[in-house]
Design goal:
- Helix content is 62%, strand content 2%.
- It is mainly alpha-helical.
- It has one domain.
- The protein has a two-stranded antiparallel sheet.
- β1 and β2 form a beta hairpin.
- The longest helix is centred in the middle third of the chain and has 24 residues.
Length: 398
């Protein structure tokens, strides 16, 4: 452990090894994908297309085979976020986009109420999933950072800024909506509510600067249609598209060959398990309860989404790692075993370090990447229902 957390001297600077590995590997992943050509950074061209098509007032959700493969599924406000990168040469815009994603998640982790050593361990736990997302030129590390920051800012009673990240995450990729649960932990709920609504209106209208009100309003309608269509494609693709629906529902559908399983059959009991801990009002005052619930949200946002893919799991593994680090010391053997389960089957199963045959014939066909995170989600839900969070107190750092 000491070897992993040691400090590396670079000239006059001393950099913790996890921090150096985080940014170095993010940059190498970006360079590797950019160097292979347009096909490997297809997602970046989709993102860039959101900006260009908004300017041209062209439907954001149609197929454009002359520009990229697949279609866009991000909200119209994404055109504003991606604009600075889309104006750069493709190789530079893609590189900066990837590094910024890694930095936002790093910055958010540094704001968590953890010791410096715990923060470095969280970087190591999430390192493979961050790289997986960067290799796919995805937005998920930034989104994870936004959710973490929304929690931190509510804790610091800066609800106005917290709700900016919640509204932005919701209007870009829906997952950010989980941050609305932090409303219950806020000491300024009226401010939280009105600032969220204010940001929602502002961000909804912001793409109109690049296009027109009529185009943006229509784009939100088109976005809803595209999400409904994508969900239908994901849940019907038992064998055709194994890279999607890596979720609890996907596991049940694929292991049991139950193509007709409806999402609500899993989401309904999951929603109940989300709601029941919130009836323990006396626990709200304990930081460990609030953090544990935030971890439940981060994991659940992925494993209960039919749109979950390998690069989405940076949210879930970050949430799990955060939960792991606040467990009592010394860590119990079952906690250590759960960490090993997540690292092996969730994180490493998507890499070349895992036997290709096992990955291709067992992990992918049955969506087993989701299994360790679902196991962790169940454990965390049980804790939230049964544990007295008054003791021990959450260790703080910084």
């Amino acid at each position: 452990m000491k070897l992993l957390l040691r400090t590396i001297s670079i000239g006059r600077w001393s950099v913790p090894l996890p921090v150096l590995a985080w940014f170095l590997l993010a940059m190498l992943a970006a360079i590797a994908e950019i160097s292979r050509g347009q096909d490997t950074i297809n997602n970046y061209y989709i993102f860039k297309g959101v900006f260009e098509h908004t300017l041209a007032q062209k439907n954001l959700y149609l197929l454009y085979p002359g520009e990229y493969v697949d279609s866009n599924h991000y909200g119209p406000v994404f055109s504003i976020l991606i604009a600075p990168f889309a104006l750069l040469p493709d190789w530079l815009g893609c590189f900066v986009w990837c590094v910024l994603n890694a930095w936002v998640l790093f910055f958010a982790i540094r704001q968590l109420q953890l010791t410096d050593q715990q923060q470095q361990l969280l970087l190591l736990i999430g390192l493979v999933e961050m790289m997986t997302a960067i290799h796919n030129v995805q937005f998920n590390p930034m989104l994870t950072g936004w959710i973490l920051l929304s929690y931190v800012l509510v804790e610091k009673q800066k609800d106005g800024w917290a709700t900016l990240f919640i509204a932005a995450g919701f209007l870009v990729k829906l997952y950010g909506v989980v941050g609305l649960a932090f409303f219950l932990f806020s000491k300024h709920r009226i401010r939280f509510l009105f600032s969220f609504l204010g940001w929602l209106v502002l961000l909804f209208c912001l793409p109109m600067v690049l296009s027109s009100p009529a185009f943006v309003i229509q784009s939100y309608r088109d976005w809803l249609d595209s999400l409904v269509e994508k969900n239908a494609q994901n849940i019907n693709a038992l064998d055709e598209n194994l890279m999607q629906d890596i979720s609890v529902m996907g596991m049940i559908r694929r292991i049991g060959k139950i193509s007709h399983l409806k999402n609500y059959m899993v989401l309904a009991p999951a929603t109940l398990l989300y709601a029941l801990p919130l009836l323990r009002f006396s626990q709200y005052k304990h930081a460990t309860f609030r953090v544990t619930y935030a971890c439940l949200l981060l994991i659940g946002a992925v494993i209960f989404s039919s749109s979950a893919e390998s690069s989405t799991f940076v949210l879930a593994v970050t949430g799990f790692g955060w939960w792991y680090l606040i467990q009592e010391e010394p860590k119990q053997k079952w906690v250590q075993a759960l960490l090993l389960f997540v690292l092996l089957l969730t994180s490493l199963s998507a890499t070349d370090l895992f036997p290709p045959y096992v990955r291709r014939e067992i992990i992918l066909p049955y969506s087993l990447k989701a299994l360790p995170c679902f196991t962790a989600w169940c454990v965390i839900a049980y804790q939230l229902l049964r544990k007295d969070f008054a003791v021990p107190a959450l260790k703080t750092g910084n």
